[in-house]
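Quick one: structure for this chain?
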Amino acid sequence: MRKVAFEPIVDEKSSLLLLGTMPGIKSLEKAEYYGHPQNQFWRLLFAVFGVESITDYNKKKEFLLNYKIALWDVLASCENKSSLDSDIRNEVVNDFEAFFNKFPKIHTVVFDSLHAEKFYNKYVKNDFGKNFYRIPSPSGANARMSFDVKLNEWKNLLVWLKNKKSV
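Got it. Here's what it folds into:
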């Protein structure tokens, strides 16, 4: 099945870009980033910033933009029979040069999975003068780490970035 990624959630004030790989099947069905109920992305972000859980998707997008966080995926499209990044084939990368030119205030990029980082490094091969980091995948498939361990790593990085004014 050919999958096509979502448009980025971003505005001219965004300073940090959270990068995933490609939306999973449930997310595509819901037309929402991290729409699978077992994905911990939103729960982790709300916990990092001490915000009550938000269920309305438009309010989730507002939350991101209020914190100057952009959200996108490394891949524009791919073939994938499942929602697993390891099953991705015939991938096409997004145009990061155009994206960073359009949103020059973004200076920090955080990959939320090893696969996102690998695809970026394989195809983009340019850091565009940005700072890059990786946090543990929020996917329910990443069961080797508990929520609390993931939260600790997410919090350590994102709070550190916020304190140094990267967010």
